[in-house]
Amino acid sequence: MITASDPRIGFVSLGCPQALVDSERILTQLRVEGYEIVGGYREAELVVVNTCGFIDEAVEESLQAIGEAMEENGRVVVTGCLGAKPQTILREQPRVLSVTGPQRYEEVMEAIHAHLPPRHDPHTDLVPPGGLKLTPRHYAYLKIAEGCNHTCSFCIIPSLRGKLASRPVGEVLREAQALLDTGVRELLVISQDTSAYGADSKYRPDLWQGQLLRTHVQDLARALGQLDAWVRLHCIYPYPHVDDLVDLMADGYVVPYLDVPFQHDSPKMLRAMRRPAHAENTLERIHRWRQRCPDLALRSTFIVGFPGETDEDFEALLTFLYEAQIDRAGCFRYSPVAGATANALDGAVPDRVKYERFETFMTVQAEISAARLAARVGRQVEVLIDEVDEEGAIGRTHWEAPEVDGRVFLDGLTELPEGTLLEAIITGSDEHDLWAEPTYGHL
Ligand code: SF4
Of 290, 314, 404, 407, whose CB has the highest number of CB atoms within 10 Å? Predict the structure, then answer.
């Protein structure tokens, strides 16, 4: 029970799902220690801002959030990726209480204790067993590793978050079970490179329910698939062992959804980007995956206008999109990030050309997505309901991840609780979304 004398903390969480999980961990610890989390700057006695520093826009957004918290509250603890460059923050906001980089949970708590001490003993029963979540109750991100061993030339994440450090498989599975016990129905497995999970610990075996499993994505996915939830794998690079993951999808252990950040198709561009697994014959692999698992949905991200990208490279990328029939794709115009090695590359692409390529990419991808979604009309599917408004329910099938992909609209279903899983038939589509009608009721 929260009392009037509990210290009150405001919390701003920015950035990617990895950062969101960091926020959840800090929030959970705060609640364990009896802090109250409040929604407004004015009611808070101190504000924590978890920042993002991935690209220039994210840095700008983080600095703005810190500025707003300073103006409205004045007692601000900063953490997260931008915190790895404290001078960027301190130059603009020299009076923040402390600045720490990502995953520095203990230091964040130390700073909070120093400036706003807890007022009573911990009561662990204040905290649900799965910890505090910033996602809706029915899905949760499951972070399996921190950091990354690659050196992609456009990316500074390894310098912000360090080398790959995988959590033991037993620990991840125990967290997954605790999440399911609190009502979670979908687990979103995240890390910077999920296919490399366990490589740092040489796939060290760990105990789960009396069995020894390897700290390896294959063992993890199979064990997660035996729990009662959808399991969705994010950030997979096309290493050879990904074929085994597609087998698990075909066999129903994990949802038939692969989030593979290809970024380009031209071998020259991939080399310049220093992408992992860039030597693989991607198209052939995709065709084999789809033969093995015809229902597979592929999500990816791409960069256009990377230094040295010619018209021919871009045309090759468009051809790849058509041939690979990527279900959903995000596209970024290349922008230099301070500290990235790609900044030293020759062949900068003018902004106008970047913009034109971006527009062309999005038009082509919309056409492909629309055709792939139209082909699903008439299919019987499971839909997990994310939200309900006055017009009806909005959910997702196995083929859509929350936040980044399209949605499924079930018009008129205004009484369903969020987190309901139901069977439905797809009745319509456009370039992003699906429409469906329920068939047999709730699962
Ligand atoms: S794989 Fe590349 S893009 Fe992804 S975090 Fe590692 S270095 Fe960055």
Answer: 314
192 lines ligand 1 (CB under 6 A): yes
- 157 in contact with ligand 1, CB cutoff 6 A: yes
Report the predicted TM-score, pTM, of the whole model to 2 decimal places. Answer: 0.77
Q: 131-169, pLDDT tens digit by residue?
A: 666 778 899 999 999 989 988 888 888 888 889 999 999
Q: Is the CB of 148 under 6 A from ligand 1?
A: yes
- CB 422 near ligand 1, within 6 Å: no
Short-list 115, 127, 114, CA closest to 28? 127
Q: How far is the CA of 259 from the centre of ligand 1 (A)?
A: 14
β strands within 100-166, DSSP E: 139-143, 145-146, 165-166
**Dihedral sign computed on CA atoms, order 301, 304, 310, 311:** positive
Name the β-bridge partners of 143: 190
130: which 2 tokens? 């799965």
Regions in the chain scoring below 70 on pLDDT: 1-4, 120-133, 277-280, 440-443
Whole-number pLDDT of residue 441: 53
Q: Which residues pair with 52 in a beta bridge?
A: none
